[in-house]
Amino acid sequence: MAGLLDAMQGFAVIGIVIAVGCYLLVYEFVLRGLDTLYLVSCW
């Protein structure tokens, strides 16, 4: 049972890391998109 709990905890940590990584990627992508729109609209 302890092994199962350890595995679940490990999966939870990996899931959080992946979620944060995806969030940062999307955040950066959106910021760049907004920057590009801003530059285009200023031209």
TrEMBL record:
Protein known as: Uncharacterized protein
Claim: Transmembrane is one of the keywords in the record: yes
Domain of life: Bacteria
Lineage, uppermost ranks: Bacteria, Bacillati, Actinomycetota, Actinomycetes, Bifidobacteriales
Parts of the chain that traverse the membrane: 12-31
Alphabetically ordered keywords of this record: Membrane, Transmembrane, Transmembrane helix
Species this protein is from: Bifidobacterium pseudolongum subsp. globosum
